[in-house]
Amino acid sequence: MYKHCLKCLQLIALICGITLLSTAAHAQSAPSATGIVKDTLGVPIVGASVKAENKLTGSAVNSTTDANGVFNISNLQTGGNYSFTFTFVGFETKTLTGYQASAGNKISLSVTLKESATSLTQVVVTGYGTSRKADLTGAVTSVQAEDFNRGVISTPSQLLQGKVPGLNITRSGNPNDVGAVILRGPSTLRNGAQEPFYVIDGVPGASIDLLAPDDITSIDVLRDASSTAIYGSRAANGVIMVTTRKAKPGQTTLSYSTYGAVEKVSNQIEVLSGDELRNYLQANNRTLNIVDNNPGANTDWQKELTKTSLSHNHNLSLSGNSGTTAYSGSLNYFNNQGIIKSSALERFILRANIDHKLFDNKLRFNVSAVNSVTASRNIPNEVYQNMLTYLPTVNVKQPDGSFTENFTRTRGYLNPVSLIENNILDRKVKTFLGNALAEARLLPGLKYTLSVSYQNEQVNNNTYYNRFSGLAQGLNGFAARSAAENSKKVLETFFNYDKVFGKHDLKLLAGYSWQEDRLNDGFSTSNQNFVTDALSYNNLALGNAPAGTAIRYDLLAPISTIRLISFYGRAQYQYDGKYLFQATMRRDGSSAFGVNNQWGYFPAVSAGWNISKEDFMRDVKWISDLKLRGGYGSSGNSQGFNAFTRLLLYRTSTTSKFYYNGSYINAVGAYQNPNADLKWERTNVANIGLDFSLFNNILTGSVDVYDKSTSDLINDYQVSTTQYFVPTLTANAGKISNKGVEVMVTVRPLTGKALKWTSTLNFAHNQNKIESLSSDLFKLGSQPSAYLGGKGQSANPSQIIQQGLPLGSFTLARYAGKNAAGVSQFYKADGSVSTTPPVVADFAYVGNAQPKIIYGWGNTFTYKSFDLSFFIRGVYGNKILNATLANLNSPSDATTVNIPRFTLDESPADNNAYILSDRFLESGSYLRLDNATFGYNIPLKSKAVNRLRVYATGNNLFVITKYRGIDPEINMGGITPGIDNNNFYPKTRSFMLGVNVIF
């Protein structure tokens, strides 16, 4: 028995040995393939798909790259003629052909994938998830970092200026000006309620100014309600999704970018020199007051106040990703010196992020934090007017060193250099945002996410007018300080379920959100009569205010707490990649609204048809992608008022007193009516769009047509005091519409290996109209606005809010030329002409501030290691009221203020030349070469430095316009857009040199 078992074991061993030898021999003889896949920066791509296909038999072997970007494929068929296809999301597919798999041969490959040029393959960020552009059913524009605007960028919104169809961004040259951002036209009558809603790395409502531009990798703009409805009551003005930089799997990157810039004034209003003014007055038999005529003085106040400024930016970042643990951190320092002396902005940002995966990627934790400290110095508003009107016939200072002043004049006439030297207006903002996220894959396709974030903002304003200040005459120094804290707590918890079965693709989302905002937690105080100016605003206790002086210890605004609770859901369905459907619903509850309307529903539905995937399109080779989409949805606007707007409020009055207990005390009375029915404004948007990619992706683009209607406008209405405590009530009534077309087209005329050219054009037309200002309960025919003042015109409005007209409609006196004596004439209401200054009854609608078209055109050329890009943007069809020029155009006042060169053509007898009329309503159309950049990627053989790029950029190189003011880019925010009224900080022209290094 033993011998029999031994023989069996020997036989089995012999068989196994023969099998192993056969297998080894086969392994040695079977061909294989290995290689590495990288991006254009030389960084390995993890998870790229590799397909080896035998062209003779049609059989294929698939593999993916590991954490080092390496793939290995064994057991290729001997003698096969193989092609290798490499694919990865966001990159162009690459195929290598003609590889013969001979016995024992090992094919070695090194592949570089380029980022995809087809917009439909881009991954875009939507609410609570991401999607391929090809799978979207809503209007979404994605702007990548390489397409951002270049220049001295003080706020991230500037990165998008002119880049997104329908997004109108306007900003002056002031480094502290955040500008105005309006998407698809204004849809509210409230100041501070037109800004889009920002979401940063999934955190809703985060401050966009927390981020350094170098830390942003992409910005996705959700433009229609089918895309934005998932954010409910905060999304009526659009949603801007910001994604910050993170390392890809397998990457470890250290990068440093820096630039230095020189900025100068791009344009000025030409006013007379001292000698020119003297000659003008002498020619007209007029003389200056002796105190306003220093012998030989020829002061150019604009030159005295402006300078060539230096600005610089530094960004250092470190990131890495092992596949299970990813981290990133960055430091940013930005210093932007204004072109008006003393104005400046300085910012420091620290950002960190760590992401860790556990249990075979079934559990993920992410913690991020960003802290920003911004210090800014502003200038008094009086500087803008006085730099143009202050007489050039006096010196900046007198022989004794004191500033030339004439305090016997009105308060508005002040030495502009003194205004800067003797007044300090400082502001410091500290903002912190922290976010913790946990993500668990519970079941196949089912994912749960919990996100908690906290944002804290501290704002400190410090003002000091010293003893020589014209703004605090006789006060012997005046100081004011204020501090306020705003905090935001957000909890988001939601489930995602993704399931693919056959040709069906289903994605479901269900979530809950809780948010609490506590605003204006702070106070302000002031003092005066200081023994010294040396301490500025730093010790208010040193002030010695005279007896009876009211020292302020005020709240900046009512401290308020607003809570928002939301339930939301979304269903997305695809069939065979051809037919796309999406439905969204959000239910929001807000403590800011009346008890009868604290909850609202915001639904949206949309659908898409990938026409190019139909069988009948197979032979249409010139169409690469073609998708038709349409949607309708509702979103809300709850911005622009505080938590107490719905309540009955009381306050004290120092002018109304009553006798009580032997003394007179301040009365307390109602000043705001309650409104239990107050609710958010609702915006409904219908959108139809077409996405296309033609001629093998040479031509790509999209076209959108939309109808946007906002109802339940929040406005103040006159009410009867027999029913209410006070004569005004904040209520919902009225409707605004915006209808338009948006087009974006990208063409790649040159796609060679050495020379490439990409050109992108976008333009948008929007028609804004106030449909109604009334409801069944509240009636309002029209609402005059824009009371600009000026000599004898303080009671005259310059705009009107009226049914049937756009927001920003000008109602002005109608200029009728000059009479024989050279005096300006105006049309009366009855059509007659008179030199008598017109009254409001003579005014008429003469145009509006809304542009007919806004556009942007960018071009990028690359030749080997060189690149050249330029970007042109502009607007067409809008009007600007040049109240600055009108105010200056007063020949009769030339003995007391300076006049522009424009006034030399006026009759000295024209006492009406300054009157605001349609004579000063000018075209705001312009075309601007916004920026141009020339760069060079220096070839390196160093293993330590992956990329080194140097570049030069010019900003605002020229502008073509008929506008006679400093610049036609006038702020379009608020309810009185398109007005240039002695408050415009000059635009700048900048030239910068920069370096980007990646290690």
Give a description of the structure.
- The protein is mainly β and 999 residues long.
- 7% of the residues lie in helices and 50% in strands.
- The protein has a 22-stranded antiparallel barrel.
- The chain is globular, with a radius of gyration of 34 Å.
- The chain starts with a helix and ends with a strand.
- The model is unreliable at 1-28 (pLDDT under 50).
Provide the fold topology.
Blueprint: H1 2-29, E1 32-39, E2 49-54, E3 60-64, E4 70-73, E5 80-87, E6 94-101, E7 106-113, E8 123-126, E9 129-132, E10 140-144, E11 167-170, E12 180-183, E13 197-200, E14 203-204, E15 216-222, H2 225-228, E16 239-244, E17 252-265, H3 274-283, H4 301-305, E18 309-321, E19 325-337, E20 344-358, E21 363-378, H5 382-389, H6 416-421, E22 423-443, E23 446-465, E24 478-501, E25 504-528, E26 553-554, E27 560-575, E28 579-590, E29 599-610, E30 623-637, E31 649-660, E32 663-672, E33 681-694, E34 699-711, E35 714-718, E36 728-732, E37 735-751, E38 755-772, E39 782-787, E40 797-802, E41 809-812, E42 815-818, E43 824-827, E44 833-834, E45 844-848, E46 853-863, E47 866-876, E48 879-882, H7 883-888, E49 921-923, E50 926-937, E51 947-961, E52 979-980, E53 988-998
